[in-house]
Write a structure and sequence with these properties.
By secondary structure, this protein is an alpha/beta fold. Helices cover 35% and strands 15% of the residues. The protein contains 14 helices and 12 strands. Strands 1, 2, 3, 4, 5, 6, 7, 8, 9, 10, 11 and 12 form a 12-stranded mixed β-sheet that branches. The longest helix has 19 residues. The radius of gyration is 22 Å and the shape is globular. The N terminus is likely disordered.
Length: 406
């Protein structure tokens, strides 16, 4: 019996049977599944658990390879439920779900991905996904991270530099330094045309264009002069960065290697997913994070989790979503000592266990942070909003195509 069952079990009552996943009446499906407006104010987790075991299966589409570890850990605690987890990347997760639903195929139960504009303004309004926040977590997650969609994990794109080459500290203090000749061909990132995460990153920076303009004035001692056709500080930054021979890499792991490998005289600075800092231990890299960069060196974003509309296994989906968020027994003072995916640690962290490392953070405000990330709550972060992404990602993509074709 898991911790959640012990704490939350009430009178065991059978949940309504769910009709075929091919049911076209979304409202009837949500009523039977007790989702959306039909979610009870008090949820009976013993009943949900029993119904989930009867369903016996679960399919997850996700944008991260870590989903396989989450699925494995879920089946350790719930061996009666077989999980099929697919690491599809951010774009393909959304694309596959949309194509299947357009064809009337309802195969998936849980969807985990970023891509705020698509998730919030496309999939959610057409009921391809349904927001689900377990009631017992409502007071422990900031509203912005549970509505309109539940954040499964907070992640960030950061800038890495090489501590072997720069043992005395970061080589830059202002992001505009990267547009100078010294850093020509020594700044790397992924293209936004094949990565929703990178597209959202650039939109995030553009949303903070005023701060970029202020940072330039702080750096150069004079106001920013925009190039023809540009009226935003972040667009001007990328215009100059691309003109300074920005290097495009095909994957996040290659970015981390480029900045972090040992024996380099002039390593690049890279825009990398923060979690790649853990490759310092596994691969011997020498990356460090430019935390104190002006205007910011940490660009935070949400990876969402949602139940797919007309999911064939809605109770198993609820159980999986709750599992991903960690047990109710966690608190900010909980000490996680030893491997997070084993023994008591796994019972406490549950689906948080594979992510319990620097670079991936729970949206809950009542859980501990991983060792080495104690400064995370106080770090200056730039957040992008889903509404801005919705209204600007097309322009960001057009800007990128134009600038990189010059």
């Amino acid at each position: 019996m898991t911790i959640r069952t012990i704490i939350l079990a009430g009178t065991l009552a059978a949940l309504p049977a769910i009709a075929s996943a091919q049911d076209t009446d979304i409202e009837a499906w949500m009523e039977r599944a007790q989702l959306g407006a039909h979610q009870p104010e008090t949820e009976d987790w013993a009943a949900i658990g029993e119904a989930a075991k009867e369903e016996g299966a679960l399919t997850v589409y996700a944008s991260s390879s870590t989903i396989s570890a989450v699925a494995e850990d879920f089946m350790k605690l719930y061996p009666e439920i077989e999980v099929s987890a697919f690491d599809l990347g951010s774009e393909k997760t959304i694309e596959k779900l949309m194509r299947e639903h357009q064809a009337g195929l309802y195969n998936v139960d849980v969807v985990n991905t970023g891509g705020a504009a698509q998730m919030v303004y496309e999939l959610l309004p057409q009921n391809s996904i349904v927001n689900y926040v377990p009631r017992y977590l409502a007071d422990d997650i900031p509203q912005a991270l549970q509505q309109p969609l539940l954040t499964q994990m907070v992640e960030a794109t950061v800038l890495f530099y090489n501590t072997e080459t720069y043992p005395d500290g970061p080589p830059i203090s202002n992001i505009w330094e990267l547009t100078e000749p010294e850093w020509s061909k020594r700044v790397g990132m992924k293209s936004p045309l094949g990565s929703l995460t990178t597209l959202a990153l650039i939109a995030n920076l553009v949303e903070h264009g005023d701060q970029f303009a202020q940072a330039y004035e702080s750096y150069a001692g004079k106001p920013l002069v925009y190039s023809e056709g540009i009226d935003n500080g972040a667009y001007e930054f990328f215009h100059r960065l691309i003109g300074n021979d920005l290097v495009i890499y095909g994957s996040g792991s290659k970015l981390a290697a480029a900045s972090g490998m040992t024996g380099q005289e002039a390593p690049p600075i890279t825009f990398s997913s923060m979690h790649y800092i853990n490759k310092n231990d596994s691969d011997g890299y020498k990356n460090a994070i430019l935390y104190n960069l002006e205007p910011s060196g940490v660009f935070a974003y949400s990876t969402y989790t949602a139940i797919a509309g007309r999911a064939p296994h809605p109770n198993a989906a609820k159980l999986f979503v709750a599992f991903q968020m960690g047990s109710q027994a966690l608190s900010a003072d909980t000490v996680i000592d030893g491997p997070p995916r084993a023994g008591k640690n796994l019972e406490l962290l549950e689906g948080m266990a594979p992510y319990f490392k620097v670079g991936t953070f729970s949206p809950r405000d009542d859980v501990p942070v991983p060792a080495g990330a104690e400064d995370w709550p106080e770090v200056n972060k730039f957040w992008g909003t889903a509404a801005f992404q919705r209204d600007n990602v097309a322009r960001v993509a057009d800007f990128w195509v134009y600038e990189t074709s010059q």
